[in-house]
Amino acid sequence: MALQIDFIAEARESYSPTVPTVSEAFTPADNTLLVVLIAAEVAASATEYMSISGGSLTWTRRVHKSPRSTSTGGASPILGSAEIWTAYATTSPGSITVTFTPNADVYSYVAQVAIFSGSEGSRLTGQLGAVSTPIGGSSFTDITLGGISPGSYVFATAIDIAQAGIPDYGTGQTANWNTTLQRMWQTTSVTAAGDVRMYMTAPANQSINLCAIEIKAARGGGGAGAWLG
Predict the structure, then answer these.
(1) E strand or H helix at 142, and its extent?
(2) pLDDT for the residue 195
(3) pLDDT value at residue 98
(4) pLDDT value, residue 113
(5) Dihedral of alpha carbons 8, 14, 20, 25, sign
(6) Which residue from 42, 60, 48 is spatially nearest to 180, judged by alpha carbons?
(7) Cα-atom radius of gyration of the chain, to the nearest Å?
(8) What sign does the dihedral 9-10-11-12 (CA atoms) show?
């Protein structure tokens, strides 16, 4: 079967350090990939930021962009962290929730779960990437993942530590935006092998930590969902 997005849960936000939040309940089918997108404001001393649990599944942080700070008009520096986690359910765990637990170095965060069927799953070998834009720069934010396979999706998460304002996103992308905390993804899967660029077109002067992941179609999925590699 071709790769498809089964469900994208409502985002969960917290502005209280160490206070967990819990996703809405959902029921993953057999052979389902779960992806969590996180963006957070964190302390300079932070080295680990979040832990993820739920469904008695094994959760792995796949890609992470370390904190970077900027000063805002004499206020305390704002540091931002972006990360993406995955888990794979070989058999359905039934109705579950996902718990997002910040450590004491996390000031605020937003987390969102996406569920996929027809993915490469526990053998996930898709492309990963992470970038930062210059602090106070005039360029817009983008990340390009190369060698993306037909049938894949690309998801990304970001934090604007400059707090430049509501962003405009690139063609073919859907996004959720919470103050400085952003999640974005393609509206359709890739139809031909090549590079995929996730980007923002406004406002200028953003200072973004951004990371992205390719969600790869299962081998032998057929048609646009076939795995080539």
Answers:
(1) strand 142-148
(2) 86
(3) 97
(4) 94
(5) negative
(6) 42
(7) 17
(8) negative
As a whole number of angstroms, the distance between CA 1 and CA 68 comes to 41
Q: Please check whether residue 142 is in contact with residue 22, taking contact to mean a CB–CB distance below 8 angstroms.
A: no
Residue 179 structure tokens: 């103050």
Cα angle: 29, vertex 176, 6; to 5 degrees: 15
How far apart (Å, rounded) are the C-alpha atoms in residues 102 and 87?
18
Q: Report the alpha-carbon distance of residue 151 to residue 137 in Å, rounded.
A: 35
Predicted pLDDT at 224: 30
- What pLDDT does 33 receive? 94
Nearest CA to 213 among 141, 133, 135, 158?
Answer: 158
Stretches in the chain below the pLDDT threshold 70: 1, 44-48, 66-78, 122-126, 129-141, 161-167, 177-184, 187, 201-207, 220-229
As given in the structure block, the two tokens for residue 216 are 């790869």
Residue 157: C-alpha distances to residues 76, 95, 110, 126 (Å):
24, 26, 10, 16
Q: Looking at residue 85, what is its pLDDT? A: 93
